Amino acid sequence: MACGIEIFQPVNNLYQLRLYWSLTTFLSLILAFSLIASAQSGRKSVLNDPKPASKTENDRENNRIQTPRAFLVVTSAPPQPEKGQPARPDYEYQVRGACLNELQRIKGVKVMEDENISSREARELAQFETDTYVVWMELKWVGVTQYNQTPFRLRYLLLEPDSGKTIASGYGTPALWVWGLPHLKYSLEEQLQEAGRNVAHRVMEELGIRP
User: Fold this and answer.
1) I want to staple 114 with a disulfide (CB 3.0 to 4.6 A). Which of 14, 74, 96, 130 is the partner?
2) DSSP E strand stretches across the chain
3) Backbone angles phi and psi of 95, in degrees to 5
4) pLDDT at 2
């Protein structure tokens, strides 16, 4: 019996050693796979990270978000009257003044004006500015119809400082007549002024500004 016991003990110890080795190997493999997966995940996240924006792009985006420090409102040169016709009033002055008055309601913002400026010149002005947005307007005269008593179209451009890029463009909406309601028939001056104010509102909306 003593001999049998002596043989059993070494065999039992060998079994325990093999079991310990198997468990250690298994745990080592799990740890190794975890480290590899973690490294691949980290490398993938680095590769998928978007390219950081340049300082210029960030500065430009910040300029769009922040309230402008100044506006320069300009109008194009009026068309020359035809031969034999008297010079018409300065309607450009009226739309420019209406736009100016609305923009001046923005607290802490300086508003300036100029006249007889082409769209190319307005873009060049914006490129030389660092914190002044240029609002360019052009008054075009069109024929009056039975259903449209507005004889003009007021086109505008909102130009970004430094780059001169067009941020927004469109037409100012004038005060419209309502047929059958005599008290809602507006004079030409009232239509011009409302169109100028509407341009200012569109500019403020585009830049996220509240007066």
Assistant:
1) 74
2) 70-75, 110-114, 132-141, 152-159, 166-172
3) -70, -35
4) 46
